[in-house]
Amino acid sequence: MVWGGISTRLRTPLYHVVGNLTGVRYQNEILQPLVVPALQAIGPRAILQDDNAPPHRSAAVNTFIQQARVNRMLWPANSPDLNPIEHMWDELCRRVQQHHPPPANLGQLLQWLQQEWNGVPRAFICNLIHSMRQRCVECLAHNGGHTRY
C-alpha cells in the first residue's frame, strides 16, 4: 500500500506503508512528517480530506488532529467517496501499467510509482480538486447514488 496527498499547490512524497496501518502508525508515519508540514505550507485555510478508514478515525489520531490544529473535512458514515485522490490513484495505476515489462520486484514497482506520482501534471491534479464542487452537486442530485465521477 502507498499513501500520498495532493493539493493545488503541492503533493506529498509517496509513502510506502509496510504492513497494517494503525492509527498510531498513521499519526507517526504520515500525519506528523507528511501531512502537517504540507498543510502548513499551504496555509491556514488548508483542509485535510481523508476518509472514514479506521486508522484515520482512531482516538489517538483525532486527538493529534485537534492538538495540531488541522482543519479536517468531516465525512458522514457510509458516504460516497468523492475524494479526488481516488482519481489520482487511477491515473497512477494507468501510468505504471504502461511500463513494459512489468516490474521485476517490489523495489522496482515502488520506484516506478514514485516516478509516475511525481510525473502527474499539476494541471491534472488541479482539475481533480477544482471538480469537488461539481462532484458534491451531482452526488446530491443523485441522492448519494452513482455519478459520472
TrEMBL record:
Top-level taxonomy: Eukaryota, Metazoa, Spiralia, Lophotrochozoa, Mollusca
Domain of life: Eukaryota
GO molecular function: nucleic acid binding
Name of the protein this chain belongs to: Tc1-like transposase DDE domain-containing protein
InterPro entries named among the record's database cross-references: RNaseH_sf, Tc1-like_DDE_dom
UniProt domain Tc1-like transposase DDE: residue ranges: 28-100
One Pfam family recorded for the sequence: DDE_3
